[in-house]
Design a protein that fits this description.
With 886 residues, this protein is an alpha+beta fold. 50% of the residues lie in helices and 15% in strands. The protein has 37 helices and 27 strands. A 15-stranded mixed beta sheet has the order 1-21-22-23-20-24-19-18-17-26-25-15-16-27-2. Strands 4-3-11-12 form a 4-stranded antiparallel beta sheet, covered by helices on one side. A hairpin with a 2-residue loop joins β3 and β4. 51% of the residues are buried.
Length: 886
């Protein structure tokens, strides 16, 4: 996996919007036009788009520009825009200023993009926030102008003061009531009020069912045409920013995809009329002062207490000539294009020129560091990365990039530390998870590496190269550790990068070795690749060929391939270090700590907890600072029933790594098993503070509430989730609430929720089918006929459970199927479920003793924390034990 291009993609730019309502109402129109700019002395219609961090000329021919350097697969929010690149240096004039720089252009934009900007908005292109950042800007909604001033106006002293992110589009950081930090994107490229994160929109929509509303159709770069509901808020709070009289709607995915963890909302142009805003980009501070009601007219929505449709609130803003347009980021964009076509010397020259123009541009230092790494100048790369971090210590990307460099230098512990710090700031960066997974795998922490590869796929769509590499690295490591092969074919259809797709096809057996090697010498268009691209892709190919050989048991052939990969020594190639670590693993002449950890990991995966524990103990004897050895030995001991030993090991892992939330989580499970419930909740609380996205350890989440026996609290938790979650999650929410109701003893309510889950997603909630069949019998009802649904289930274990609930499979056959898994952990989970459902069937038949026996066996599998059926079994057994025996 080579270094990613350094130039930013265009983000947050409005393409078009239509309104589909019962009446003919106008769309709000608002944009910020530069006053009479020219390009090479030709008039140009340019808008200022603060929601983007990269400028783009959409109509180059109209302003006399041609494409000088092109990349044929430039990603913009996950999509590819053909023939995107840079012009030759051009003169851009605005007011009394003229700058000379290459400009980002698109030779043949999609028709929709061309139509919207050229016809609807009358524009030839946009100038992004990056080019105007270093001003003190007043967004004057009274005069519809953005102007620059030499110093802050005195009235800002009493205004709300928010931090502005140093890189990216115009983004404000806001403190939120729960103590976390959110972000507000200010986007002059869209005319609307306030866009909300999906979570915030659902909460507002549920709390305001009678608010005036309409429906609009949105399209943005990187997004399909989407239908969006828009409502009118008399009051809305974006953290400490309290707005009145403003329209709100759910943000499109491209608005928050790059910052999903922090994204709170977007202020569009109408939103800017509801607040006074002054941005001091030089010092990364913004000052805001909400305006009183009422706001300006806004078409399409009836205001509260105001009859009828409103007249259009069109407002054309102007960028005053006092605003200075800077050229350093144009040169940085040019460097990014050259990186993408492997012209590293040219990219280095452009990035260096950007820094000559602005020595305090952290993104330019970071980009130049990556370019130097491509040129094998590791020392120069490190110096640039450290300068970038010094200028912007809160950029997650910069720590990730420095971590990648340290990984390439073989300092795996330092690499993990840097990338982990990056992930603390941005826990949803797929590229960072891939980098940390690679560093962990190379350093011998194979099991945590697998977890990182899986997390990368969780946070980024499968079509992105980062996720593709995560899947590829994870799949090969899984097979290497003894897991069965996964068929990658279904997901490959969504992969857009042709080379990454070729690797996946080869691993899946759908591409011959000869065709695979031929693909390594082609670019994304199918043409012969240039020398740099061919070198990188052939280096990767040798690594993957070696992995396939070692999985097939041919170690000598594997070593030959890895030696070729290492000999090529492409420093920005992640596979280089993976190949180097695999060579160390197969060097039988000198056993290493990494070999010992690999052997222990294989035994752990196979469920040989005693053997794995013994080898983790040997690893600890050689190095008492190995967090992963203590952690996984603790898990082994827990699975062997040694909760005291598990607690001791997990405590040591926490001592060595106080931010290891998984160690806190699992120590909480061990304490729960030891009936130290107060200690368990304390550990869950700490784990949740370190990983607030993890509902498993949320002190107010369902697992903790159910484990404490607070079933009413768990039901309330799921009821809130049903009201606020996205459509895709609601069937699971009903299924989980039904389980809590079942634990509480509300079997009729549980059955109703199970049926609701099935009605919403008949194919996605198989456990709801199984449990509802047995609950119907428990309540004396005729069981539903789910045979058609069950016949479609592909998982053999789930199908066996369904057939058992229907009476087609008996309990002996079900138990036999539960034991067929070659993995001890999977086997234990299936036995936990089998014993629960068999016990429930005995209860339905009036055999209390049989139910008790099977439920006790279910709990003996020790699956607390691994399987929600464990908690359900515990609640059922407690209820049964409280029933007087005959």
């Amino acid at each position: 996996m080579a270094l990613k291009p350094t130039a930013s993609a265009v983000a947050g730019t409005l393409l078009t919007a239509f309104i589909f309502t019962g009446c003919a109402t106008a769309e709000p129109e608002a944009q910020v036009d530069f006053a009479h700019p020219t390009i090479n002395q030709k008039p140009a219609a340019l808008i200022m788009d603060t929601g983007s961090d990269s400028s783009l000329i959409f109509q180059p021919a109209r302003v006399g520009l041609t494409l000088a350097k092109a990349t044929h697969d430039w990603p913009v929010n996950g999509q590819s825009l053909d023939d995107f690149g840079m012009s030759d240096p051009a003169n851009l004039s605005f007011g009394s200023q003229t700058i000379t720089a290459p400009l980002p252009v698109m030779k043949d934009p999609p028709w929709l993009l061309r139509w919207v900007f050229a016809w609807l908005m009358g524009s030839d292109g946009l100038i992004s926030w990056s080019e105007v950042r270093d001003n003190i800007l007043i967004f004057d909604s009274e005069k519809h102008v953005v102007r620059a001033v030499p110093e802050l106006p005195p009235e800002t002293a009493g205004w709300l003061k928010l931090k502005v992110r140093r890189t990216g589009p115009l983004t404000l950081e806001v403190p939120l009531p729960d103590g976390s930090t959110g972000t507000i994107l200010v986007d002059t490229g869209q005319p609307y009020g306030v866009s909300l994160s999906p979570k915030e929109w659902r909460a507002w929509d549920a709390a305001n069912p009678n608010a005036p509303s309409t429906t609009r159709m949105f399209a943005m770069i990187g997004a399909d045409l989407s239908e969006v509901e828009e409502g009118w808020a008399d009051n809305y709070e974006l953290g400490p920013l309290k707005l009145t009289d403003v329209p709100v709607h759910q943000a499109l995915g491209v608005e928050w995809a790059g910052d999903a963890f922090h994204y709170t909302g977007t202020l569009g142009m109408y939103g800017l009329t509801r607040v006074d805003l002054i941005v001091d980009g030089k010092n990364s501070v913004a000052y805001l002062h909400p305006k009183p009601s009422p706001g300006l007219p806004y078409p399409g929505i009836k205001r509260s207490n105001e009859p009828g449709n409103l007249p259009s609130g069109d407002q054309k803003w102007t960028v005053d000539p006092s605003v200075v347009v800077h050229s350093d980021n144009f040169w940085l964009d040019s460097a990014g294009v050259k990186v993408n076509i492997k012209d590293y010397p040219g990219a280095l020259a452009d990035a260096s020129h950007a820094l000559e123009l602005n020595p305090n541009n952290p993104a330019a230092y970071d980009a130049r560091g990556g370019i130097k790494l491509c040129l094998s100048d590791a020392a120069g790369a490190l110096a640039d990365y450290e300068r970038a971090i010094a200028l912007d210590p809160e950029s997650a990307a910069f720590y990730n990039d420095r971590g990648f460099l340290k990984y390439e230098q073989g300092d795996f512990d330092a690499a993990v530390a840097d990338v982990s710090h990056s992930l603390e700031m941005d826990p949803q960066d797929a590229n960072a998870y891939v980098n940390r997974g690679d560093a962990r795998q190379s350093g011998g922490n194979f099991l945590d590496a697998l977890n990182d590869y899986e997390l990368a796929g969780d946070w980024q769509p499968g079509g992105w190269p980062d996720t593709g590499y995560a899947v590829l690295h994870g799949e090969l490591l899984r097979r290497h550790l003894g897991f069965p092969a996964t068929d990658l074919t279904p997901m490959l259809a969504d992969w857009k990068d042709s080379w990454v797709k070729s690797i996946g096809q080869f691993i899946s057996g759908n591409l011959s070795e000869a065709a695979f090697l031929a693909a390594a010498n082609k670019d994304d268009s199918g043409a012969p690749a240039n020398a740099a691209t061919a070198r990188e892709q052939n280096g990767e190919a040798e690594y993957y060929l070696g992995m396939m050989r070692i999985i097939q048991g041919n170690a000598s052939a594997a070593r030959e391939h890895w030696q070729k990969c290492v000999a090529d020594a492409v420093l920005d190639l992640g596979e280089y270090n993976l190949a180097r670590s695999e060579l160390a693993l197969t060097d039988s002449a000198s056993p290493t700590q990494t070999q010992l950890l690999f052997s222990a990991s294989k035994k752990y995966v196979a469920g040989d907890y005693a053997g794995a524990s013994a080898e983790f103990t040997q690893a600890i004897a050689a190095d008492s600072t190995l967090v992963c050895a203590y952690y996984y030995r603790g898990i082994c001991r827990y699975n062997q029933g040694d909760t005291a030993g598990a607690i001791a090991d997990l405590t040591q892992a926490i001592t060595l790594d106080p931010k290891n939330f998984l160690a806190y989580e699992n120590r909480g499970l061990a304490k729960d098993s030891s009936r130290d419930h107060a200690g368990a909740v304390a550990d869950y609380t700490q784990a949740f503070s370190l990983d607030p996205q993890n509902n498993t350890v949320d002190p107010d989440g369902e697992f903790v509430l159910e484990n404490k026996g607070d079933y009413a609290g768990a039901i309330a938790f799921h009821t809130k989730e049903i009201a606020t979650d996205g459509k895709a999650d609601i069937p699971d929410d009903y299924a989980e609430r039904s389980r809590a109701k079942q634990m509480q003893g509300d079997f009729a309510g549980a059955l109703a929720d199970y049926h609701q889950a099935i009605a919403l997603d008949a194919g996605g909630v198989p456990y709801s089918h199984v449990t509802s069949l047995l609950l119907q019998q428990r309540l004396g009802q005729t069981p539903s006929d789910f045979s058609k649904d069950i016949a479609k289930w592909k998982d053999p274990w789930l199908k066996s459970l369904g057939l058992f609930a229907m009476g087609v499979v008996d309990e002996s056959a079900l138990l036999a199927e539960a034991r067929t898994s070659g993995n001890n952990q999977d086997c234990a989970q299936q036995l936990c479920e089998a014993d629960y459902y068999i016990g429930l069937m005995h209860l339905v038949k009036g055999d209390m003793a049989g139910a008790r026996n099977f439920w006790q066996q279910s709990l003996a599998t020790n699956q607390l924390g691994y399987n929600p059926i464990y908690l359900l079994t515990r609640a059922e057994l407690a209820r049964l034990e409280a029933t007087p025996r005959n």
